[in-house]
Amino acid sequence: MAVIEVTDAAAARVRELLEKDGKLATHSLRMKVVGGGCSGLRYELAFDDRLNETDTVIEAHDVKIVVDEKSALYLMGTTLDFVDTLNETGFKMGNPNASTTCGCGESFAA
Questions:
Q1: Strands 4-6 and 107-109, how do they pair?
Q2: Containing domain of residue 11, as a range?
């Protein structure tokens, strides 16, 4: 099982944002799980040009997603998607490890 599955829509949005900033060749999307939010844990996404020895790198649809070792435990099997509808716009995580999520989908418990 892959740590992260990346949909075409998510990869296209990551690529678009990196290209806009001229960082496609040098940066990856770093996904982290940190403490916080109303359910106890929350997702953190940021562009990063560093790679640590214990990071997992997922290459999907010509973009790189980087996950640190601790976050990988919470993200195993997660699907990263991007939605753009009338009701919501942004990255969405389908995390099979989440036992509960908050109403806004920003945080979860495992």
A1: unpaired
A2: 4-109
- What is the C-alpha radius of gyration for the chain, rounded to an integer number of angstroms? 14
Tokens for 28, please give them: 């990856």
Neighbour tally for 27: CB within 10 Å = 20
**CATH at residue 35:** 2.60.300.12
3-14 per-position pLDDT tens digit = 899 999 999 999
User: How many domains are contained in the chain?
Assistant: 1
pTM (two decimals): 0.86
- pLDDT tens for 57-78 read 999 999 999 999 999 999 999 9
Dmax of the chain from CA atoms? 41
* C-alpha separations of 13 from 18, 20, 79, 93 in Å: 9, 11, 15, 14
